[in-house]
Design goal:
Length: 122
Amino acid sequence: MGKKDSFFRNFCTKFKSVQREDSAEAGEEMSGEIVRKKLIFKGEVQFVGFRFQSRYIADMLGLTGYVENLSNGDVLMEVQGPIGVIQEMIICLHQKKPIRIDSVEEEDMPVKKTEKGFRYMW
C-alpha cells in the first residue's frame, strides 16, 4: 500500500471513529439503513480529478452508484449506502485538492437493490 492509500485510510478511519462517537450521541448508526442520494456538486469540480477521487473513495467505503460531469460544469452523483458513510465520502471529497466544492444539492432517491460497485458515466 502506498503512502497516499495509507494516509487516506487513516484519515477516513479517524473520521469514521469520530463520526461514530457523534452518531452514537445522536442515536444514529453509521452502518444503518441503506439510502440512495442524488448529489449535485458545484464549484471547481471538473478537470480536477473529482470523478476519479469519487470512485476511489466510494470503493474504499463500500458505496455503490455513479458519477458524471454535467454540461454546465457541475458534477452529478448518485450514491447508495448508509447515510453516515455517504456523509463521510462528501467530507473526504472536500479534503481533496485541487477539488473545491462550493455547494452540494441533495435529493433522496429510491434504493437500487441489485446495484454493484461505483462507476463513471460518460
